[in-house]
Specification:
Two copies of one chain form a homodimer. The first copy, chain A, is of the alpha/beta class. Chain A has helices at about 15-25, 25-40, 110-130, 145-160, 170-180, 195, 240-245, 255-260, 275-280, 300-320, 340-345; strands at about 10, 45-50, 50-55, 60-65, 70-80, 95-100, 105-110, 135-140, 160-165, 185-190, 200-205, 210-215, 225-230, 240, 250, 275, 295, 325. Chain A is built from eleven helices and 18 strands. In chain A, helix 3 crosses helix 10. At the A-B interface, helix 1, helix 2, strand 3, strand 4 and strand 5 of A face helix 1, helix 2, strand 3, strand 4 and strand 5 of B.
């Protein structure tokens, strides 16, 4: 798109919540999953890099850029496990969609809610390719901010009917049960991860601690299970014992990133994995037998955010939601950036005392 | 800062223009230069990476993150030289300042205008350390969007009294002359870069073409000159003949980035350069003689944007400008992200026909 003015659309948290509400969470997840699936099948079309992380004592702040020939997106996202103590979300995110031909940012949007939705949709896409098709029971370990979205994606998109819940924070589990009471999901509260996992077709782990934890050990795993490992997504933040990976056929989004961030970080560099896009395109095999254990080492890749930003752009336009913000100047003469401050100069306004210690020569 | 709510302040293009207008462009530049100088002297305090670039046929989109122990910033910036044809700025930018302890984005602001100001302030800081102190005459090659800001920074902060102008686009030069008519600068329009450079104390090149151009060749350079090379800032985008670098004492912001992006990209990997922070801290020598040619191979580093974002945050607070935007959810229970869409679920609103082709299992 090339137009003489730059118009940046802004979607607030409330706007995105309204979009999801208007479309319906099931349809929103379905639309997102379809877009993710289609975008993964265009794998070579994207300019991909591992996300850029700034680590600190309490957490991490990351930027996740990606682009195809026409559209550039990036997401800002943090991970601060101790935030909930202070009443803040562990994960906060926003992102931008821009036009590759001009560099103009066209959409700026909240992505905290969207990240939970897109992660769940991604999990559903992977499980559709990797889990046994008749899967009905899922264990869900970690019942925090993302858990309802995982539950609903597997319910609506993969036919899961029963979810076995466990969290060290019982209140989190109660919150999930209450939030999903309106659905037809059978919710079973368990007293340990081991109890939750027993007999499940799919195991989703989505815990938040930035530690090398062992949520799943090899003796908990049963033949034919599909493991959807979501919470091991940062150096030093893992959930799964290496023996589980050794026993599994392991699938990843983008191998260079997952080697650093995923539960894969504990495995040797030559430990074989398959990138999911190859399975979605039927260029590689997914599950090879009823008995095989499949493992999706999900870390969150920029491509899911690209898909989500494209969906939000399209839905906001369809539904007429959002507002324009003045993020980029519109100039009568693009070489006359100075025109932005010329009127103020002429008006001669000046705050006395906002002075500088840096000497003025003039 | 740890508070139970996340409040993101937004500064539009108009807000930042108002800040500059209220403070005065001279004082704004002075304050920014002082902050950049001080931040460069805290060099080790920052977690630094070369910017992350996505190149396309028409330009580049970059993300520039940096952090110290308390504050994280990043800038989004593009470079699309052909944009002006279509009435769009070549360079458009915005950025965010966030709290390292929580990951919460505290300030979202336009940075197109700000980038021109911070680049000019950075140039002035470098020239103060590298140019001959009695410099009065500057050649300014490239009279586009950034040129007035360069002229004013050198006028107000470095004592430049005469500026010799050249641009292949004569209208751009006329625009500059008109924009700076209110100042006490003596503006001399020249008919070639060579004519502009002759006899100048300082030479600033700030052209926009994404080509390996030769704006300055070695035979144009005179003893004692300081060269402020601003427009060679991207792989394949250079302005200066390698012989000029060979004849000069070369200074850079962040060596790993400048080796890739600066005019330095044409030089062998062992070509000696000095990082400017060492000069500002008096740990390395700047100019060594009256006759020496000094070259600041400016590429734009994330640290200047960090300084600018901190200045804008402080000034917006002092002046009461900007507004709060709902970029991050405020949740009664931070683990209850689902609460954002619960009301809509209950209301049962759904757009008929926004359906998905991805099959719903439920």
């Amino acid at each position: 798109m090339t137009t003489p003015t730059v118009s940046t659309q802004f979607l607030s948290v409330q706007d995105v919540a309204a979009i999801v509400g208007r479309v319906g969470v099931d349809q929103f997840l379905a639309r997102l999953a379809q877009r993710i699936d289609a975008d993964y099948q265009r794998w070579e079309a994207f300019d991909k890099v591992a996300r850029v992380a700034a680590h600190s004592a309490e957490g991490v702040i990351e930027l996740m850029p990606i682009a195809d020939d026409t559209t550039y997106t990036f997401k800002y996202v943090n991970g601060h496990p101790k935030n909930t103590k202070d009443g803040l979300p562990t994960v906060m995110a926003f992102g931008v969609l821009a036009d590759v031909d001009t560099g103009a940012p066209e959409l700026l949007t909240e992505l905290t809610l969207t990240t939970a939705l897109r992660t769940a949709a991604m999990s559903a896409v992977a499980a559709r390719a990797l889990a046994r098709p008749e899967s009905k029971v899922m264990a869900l370990i970690g019942n925090g901010a993302q858990s309802e979205f995982q539950a609903l994606a597997f319910h609506y998109l993969n036919g899961i009917e029963e979810i076995r819940l466990y969290d060290i924070d019982h209140a989190a589990t109660q919150k999930l049960v209450s939030n999903l009471a309106h659905t037809r999901l059978r919710l079973v509260v368990c007293s340990s991860a081991r109890e939750a996992v027993r007999g499940a077709d799919i195991v989703t782990t989505v815990t938040a601690d930035k530690t090398n934890a062992v949520i799943l050990s090899a003796d908990m795993i049963e033949p034919g299970m599909h493991i959807n490992g979501v919470g091991g997504d940062c150096p030093g933040k893992t959930e799964i014992h290496p023996d589980v990976l050794r026993a599994s056929n392991v699938f990843v989004q983008y191998e260079p990133q997952t080697r650093i961030e995923g539960d894969l970080q504990h495995m040797p560099a030559d430990f074989a994995v398959t990138e999911l896009w190859r399975v979605l395109r039927k260029e590689a095999q997914g599950r090879t037998s009823e008995k095989e254990i499949t493992f999706f080492d999900s870390v969150g890749f920029a491509l899911e955010d690209y898909s989500a930003l494209c969906c939000l752009r399209d839905l906001a336009a369809e539904l007429g939601l959002g507002q324009t913000v003045s993020l980029i100047p519109n100039l009568a003469n693009p070489k006359d950036l100075f025109s932005l401050i010329r009127p103020q100069q002429a008006a001669g306004l000046r705050v006395v005392g906002a002075g500088a210690d840096f000497a003025l020569a003039a």
